[in-house]
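Quick one, tokens below. Sequence please?
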């Protein structure tokens, strides 16, 4: 019996690239599309600055309410209470609980707007880069590499925007508190509470950025190379 025709060896059309390469490409992409990157980053800055400002103000007001309730200096306590009332700040815990509901709605709305902005900007980035993505896939880039590429790019912008937003929100809130309550604000700055709130804001900012990039990254990864290469520029 004669042997049948030899079967061709399977061709490995996809290759695995290291994380460092994805990081390098993501960094170059941000530099090439600086205006769009700044748009995404500015949205994160505004959302996180607002969040940090609200949390910082609440922490300072809570610290001053505690001081009013525990201090032996009744004269200064009445003075601070009058100042808080004049500024429209809640003096009692009951009033503070009522204000917290409205504050949560405002924070939720700000984060939602930031999430939609990130999602839209990343989807537009995928659309603009059809040919680039198609070329990489034709050269053997894995779907996982494409996803990694977009997530790293988004993470870079998220880290920068989050840290700037936290710093801006903290500084503006401290300045506003000092302008409104003078020495009372500086005497009742809750350092520990502010650190924990800054940590929370950092986690929220990073999570928000990554979540906003997941769907666009998935869209880019599932793109067929032949379809991408047909797109006219």
């Amino acid at each position: 019996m004669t042997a049948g025709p030899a079967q061709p060896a399977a061709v490995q059309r996809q290759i695995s690239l290291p994380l460092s390469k994805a990081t390098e490409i993501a960094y170059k992409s941000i530099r090439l599309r600086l205006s769009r990157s700044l748009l995404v980053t500015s949205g994160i800055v505004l959302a996180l600055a607002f969040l940090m400002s609200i949390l910082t103000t609440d922490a300072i007001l809570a610290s001053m309410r505690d001081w009013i309730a525990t201090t032996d200096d009744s004269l200064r306590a009445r003075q601070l209470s009058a100042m808080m009332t004049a500024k429209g700040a809640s003096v009692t815990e009951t009033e503070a609980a009522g204000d917290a509901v409205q504050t949560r709605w405002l924070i939720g709305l700000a984060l939602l707007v930031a999430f939609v902005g990130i999602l839209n900007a990343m989807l537009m980035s995928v659309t603009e880069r059809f040919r680039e993505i198609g070329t990489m896939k034709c050269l053997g880039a894995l779907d996982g590499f494409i996803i990694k590429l977009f997530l790293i790019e988004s993470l870079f912008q998220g880290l920068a925007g989050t840290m700037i937003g936290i710093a801006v929100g903290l500084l503006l809130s401290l300045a506003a508190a000092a302008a409104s309550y003078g020495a009372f604000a500086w005497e009742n700055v809750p350092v520990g509470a502010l650190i924990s709130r800054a940590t929370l804001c950092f986690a929220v900012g990073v999570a928000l950025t990554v979540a906003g990039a997941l769907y666009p990254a998935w869209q880019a990864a599932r793109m067929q190379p032949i379809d991408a290469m047909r797109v006219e520029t």
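The first helix runs from residue 19 to 32. The two ends are 57 Å apart (CA to CA).
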